[in-house]
């Protein structure tokens, strides 16, 4: 079982959102987005690396044509933001005049998306919206308002379903809150 593997390595994982719950939220989000953009096509911007799993599941449920592009951003070291958002890889597509939907796994302080939205807005999209699987709204340091939210959540550092702790645990099927156990070995 995926929890046990990490317990043996000194990390206690508490189940927060099961894959069934995630699937249900994705179905709801896909229906809402498909209805809002009926008759149009979407340019989906996937924020790597974390949103990879979410994007793969969501786009296959959409009922509108999509084009996919990717941007790689990073700002976390361990469980804390460094406060500096690095753009490691920019988009390939020209977004001017397009309906752009940014897909994120999680919005926390909002620093990552503020940086990205400022950059994308300057490029003249027809519309620019955010869809996030998880929204930790209470922790915001910067003003970011996702239009589509899967799960509103309060706190704790989450891992699994794309969410990492120093590049580990992304592959877990469910989403867990992680705590390092006293005396645990990495
Ligand atoms: O709202 P914020 O406090 O800025 O946090 C949200 C960001 O943190 C994570 O990315 P991370 O920098 O860990 O990179 P990753 O996607 O490669 O995991 C997550 O995927 C979001 O992009
Ligand atoms: N893995 C992970 N990355 C984050 N980035 C911002 N908040 C989180 C979180 O709770 N988990």
Describe this protein's structure.
There is one protein chain. The protein has a single domain, classed as Rossmann fold (3-Layer(aba) Sandwich), CATH 3.40.50. The protein is built from four helices and nine strands, in the order H-E-H-E-H-E-E-E-H-E-E-E-E. It has helices spanning 2-7, 19-36, 52-59, 111-121, and strands at residues 11-17, 42-48, 66-77, 80-89, 99-107, 127-135, 148-152, 158-159, 175-180. The protein has a six-stranded mixed β-sheet with strand order 4-3-2-5-6-7, sandwiched between helices. A three-stranded antiparallel β-sheet has the order 1-9-8. The two termini are 18 Å apart. The model has no long low-confidence stretch (mean pLDDT 94). Bound molecules: 1-O-pyrophosphono-5-O-phosphono-alpha-D-ribofuranose and guanine. Guanine (GUN) binds next to strand 8. Its EC number is 2.4.2.8. Its cofactor is Mg(2+).
């Amino acid at each position: 079982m995926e929890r046990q593997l990490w317990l043996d390595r000194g990390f206690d994982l508490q189940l927060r959102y099961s894959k069934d719950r995630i699937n249900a939220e994705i179905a709801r989000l896909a229906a809402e987005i498909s209805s809002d953009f009926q008759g149009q096509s979407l340019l989906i911007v996937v924020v790597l690396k974390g949103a990879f799993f979410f994007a793969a599941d969501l786009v296959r449920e959409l009922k509108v044509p999509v084009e996919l592009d990717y941007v790689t951003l990073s700002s976390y070291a361990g469980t804390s933001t460094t406060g500096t958002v690095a753009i490691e890889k920019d988009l390939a597509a020209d977004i001017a005049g397009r309906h752009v939907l940014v897909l994120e796994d999680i919005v926390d302080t909002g620093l990552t998306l503020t940086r990205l939205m400022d950059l994308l807005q300057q490029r003249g999209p027809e519309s620019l919206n955010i869809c996030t699987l998880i929204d930790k709204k209470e922790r915001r340091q910067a003003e970011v308002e996702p239009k589509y939210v899967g799960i509103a959540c309060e706190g704790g550092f989450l891992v699994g379903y794309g969410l990492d702790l120093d590049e580990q645990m992304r592959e877990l099927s469910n989403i867990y809150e992680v705590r390092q156990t006293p005396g645990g070995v990495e």
